[in-house]
Structures
1.
Amino acid sequence: MSAPQSLFPRLEPLLARATKPVQYVGGEVNAVVKEWDDVAVRWVLSYPDAYEVGQPNQGLAILYEVLNEQDWVLAERSYAVWPDLAALMREAGIPQFSLETHRPVRAFDVWGISLSTEMGYTNLLEMLDLAGVPLHAADRTDADPLVVGGGHCMVNPEPVADFLDVVVLGDGEEAVLRLSALVRDWHEQGRPGGRDGILERLASTGMFYVPRFYDVSYGEDGAVADVRPNRPGVPTTVTRHVLTDLDSWCYPVRPIVPVAETVHERYSAEIFRGCVRGCRFCQAGFITRPVRERSAQTIEAMTTAGLAATGYDEVGLLSLSSADHSQIGRIATDLADRYEGTSVSLSLPSTRVDAFNLDLATEIARNGRRTGLTFAPEGGTVRLRAVINKNVSEEDLMATVTAAFEAGWRSVKLYFMCGLPTETQADVVAIAALAHRVIEAGRRISGRRDVGCTISIGGFVPKPDTSFQWVAQASPEVVDERVHALRAAIRDDRACGRAIGVRSSDPRPGQIEGLLARGDRRVGGVVEAVWRAGGRFDGWREHFDLDRWLDACRDVLEPQGVSLAWFTTRERPESERLPWEHLDVGLDRDWLWNDYQDGLRETPVPDCRWAGCNDCGVCPAFGVDNELADLLGLEARHG
């Protein structure tokens, strides 16, 4: 294939009429540009949101380095275009482009799209259409790239199955290299079988899901009756990729430095992957099992290289619960020692209430800069926290905020969910009393009254491959009523109410998120109808239009005997086949159901790192185990 020409000479005259035009020019520090004709496989990586949201995405940053490290592969990036520029591009006949070289996305071999939020599905369609790639995988030809979906949402890709050629489950590092090698070999052999030829090769591995090679049937009750391969050599189930030995995969160390403002501007080091705390609502925690830690030495080396390559002055230690790392004390102390007296600050963006202590707080704040502290009790009462397996007592919470206040913080943010299974209005209103105690503790410790506590409330959305995948989602009206009662209780608190802020998200987008999270292929018609009606950037409050979604659900779903409520506020029976059950992330279905029942009985499940195996099924399914840095270090020292 001859190298396609850059679209920038045609694009540049339009940028003066676009919002934040700098986000489209490329040329960032650490961006990689390779000669088109010098490689065998060409990727474009996308996050279906604006540059300011997509550019800092850790998953894409990792894959960008992994792919470009290979001399036979190139990888460029492309993000969603704001509607103003998209309209101008359509008028001028300019398609979706890559940032590095402004080449047409349609010219690349593989288009990898990270789908970590369901509310980005309409942007997926917008990007496909703007690129000139047919929306439906069945309509694509050899002239189109392979459209590959990855990310957490892809444990249930069925609502967008018609729009994707391939789906990757789980960790992407080894998966993208394996996919690239299969594409390279297919090219070198003369592309036998055309587009179906490479898709069949991918599907036959059992590690890549090709939705078009599976037929779905439905029963009289509306639920999925069966999912069957429709051609020979295609397995009945597809399994997840699980990366081990994270110390051997030290990415990213040269992340791209943005030229436009983004939501996160820091060097982010992923200190471990996975979680075994077993919070029953947490999809990320379940589908990334087991825990795989990086060692303190590796994290320090990554941080040193990353800061040198970027010039950032903040280090974010990323994971699902960063204070749970078995060497977190050493990591924090080593980094605080290294950067003491400099402008570099440390942050723990995700911290469990019962894993934070005064020593850790002191190390994080040692250089005098204190980034925000957010803790997530999730439920307002001990009873509700037992239901969701968030094994945090009120004493744990008070010990944690006390440590923060003693270390010099003057405000904390507490995150809760509303609409959890078995929740009552009293459980939500109880959050006000917790916040009151937090303010009292802060005033007592600091001797000052300028202490603040922000309560952030999000609506609970049941997700696939969790213990709560069967539950009925609370309606937006119920969530609104409970949050209103909480606000009233805080207003009535004369002693501390003025020091407590409440932020809550609109539960209506959450209902659509619930539809897309647990939907089946029939929901794809809703996504397409919303996009055709003008739906774009649905994850942005100012662009979300509930009526557009309600109209599409009525027009598309109801003639098929189902509805928005059927997919969201309906409790599923144990016997119902769920739309994603042909995709194996390693979790035993019976174990998930039994854990759900344990939740209803308010029975906790312990952390399997220290209390023994809970038999969730992941480790034997993939031949893996928890990899803890402390234990790995012992093995290395003792052979």
Note: Residues 28 and 259 are 6 Å apart (CA to CA).
2.
Amino acid sequence: MSQRQKSLIGGISILGLAGLICKVVGVLYRIPLAHLIDPMGMAIYHKVFPAYNLLLTISSAGIPVAISRMVSHYITKEEPDNARRIFRVALYLLCALGLITTVLLMAFSGSVASWQGTEDATAGYLCIAPSLFFVCAMSAYRGYMQGQRHMMPTAISQLIEQVGKVAVALPLAALGMAKGGVAWGAAGALLGSTLGEAAALLYMMWQHRRKKGSLDAITQRENAELLSGKSISRQLVLVAIPITLGACIVPLAGFIDSVMLTQLMEGAGMAKDDALIRYGAYAGPVLTLINVPTALAMAMSTNLVPSIASGVAKEDRAYVARETGTGLRMASVIGFPCSIGMSILAQPILFLCYRGSYTAAQLNVAAELLQISSLTIVLFTMVQATSGVLQGLGKQKIPMYTLLLGVVLKIALNYSLVRIPGVDIHGAPWASLLCYTASMIPNLYFICRHTDYRFDWMGAAVKPLLASLVMGGAVWAIWHFLFGDAENLSRFVLILGIVLCVGVGVVLYALAAWKMGAVGKDDLPARLRRKFK
């Protein structure tokens, strides 16, 4: 493997860039989709995803991380034959899990839709169900390559998913809308997602065949014991179960939200359609935009697991502490400016993307939600980074318990706030803030307890925050004094204003972070470091 593939920063940049592109495409995709299937169709579309994401997480979240960690461990110990055996066993397990969850979702699609109070979502569940199998099988290939620090195939497969979704889902949504109304329009869009996952799986299978000999360069250590299928299965299950349970907690909270929020608003006296549209605005435009920068957090977590596992295998505590510090500092460097910038530009971004799909009043409510929800970005980024470190250390049960604590608090605060007239849906983002804060703090404590790392307040918190505040002050002043209320601006002026604010913000933040020492030359990808020389 090359130095670039071994680099934590290089891996984050590859997956992070691909993830950002995918998230931006996902946001842009939803703009014409919202025009095609109307707010009610979007509400049905977003009712399907929480239950789907929960089953997807159960079936595919833990084992890929376990594969990545175990493959990295055995490659570091010069046992490539065991790395290959791990992949084969994991592929069988994931294909079986994917098939089971696909059948379960198809069998109980009507019951789940009825439980959510949206019977029209049944067709959508049937259309999205086969993608569970495709994603599960693909996860085995991704985990195997990530364990070898080959991040590019995963990145390209993510792009294929999104391109396939846009190319196929929009025509299918239009066809469904013409044939059967909003419910079938939403189902057509979901079927497009399934076909995109199938295309990405075919690509990963091709990449696996193409890179099949990449481990041949590593000489098998003499007298290395070959693992049995039973031993590998046991290790995979022991590592994967707590990771899977931990990963299920947030999708479970999203599924509970899909049931809980609309019922609480209706219980407070709001009409059912109004409650459903408000939920759709929150689960759709708001959470979709929040998920754009979190792609970098997922890339960071994905890279940290094999990196930390490699240090543990070598028993190099200094390396583990150094990689941990880099990961947590980069989480803050990414999270703080994204949180502050999106909060300031919440109204113009929403009016640019969704004017015509939602009324001005609905978009103003969504902007209020996004201003609060944006603050969860830095917390989520830090939770993902700390979870990746703990999973790489073999302490995968800890993030499971801390996320469970956070979700319990989130549900309790949801129940307390959303049912209050006048607060209603606005209580949901405050509950999410509490959830991620309650998860992050104990994660940091246990990292410091189990490694030689000591939290660097200046480097990992104060300096990135100060640089973000410099950026945020400039962006707020530009928008406030030059543009004003987004509701009264044309689309051209909105584009001009957002481009100007983002451009100035990026330059100011980069300069401030560099001058304050929040980032240094060693944090740049290898290609940029060479240019600095």
Note: The mean pLDDT is 80.
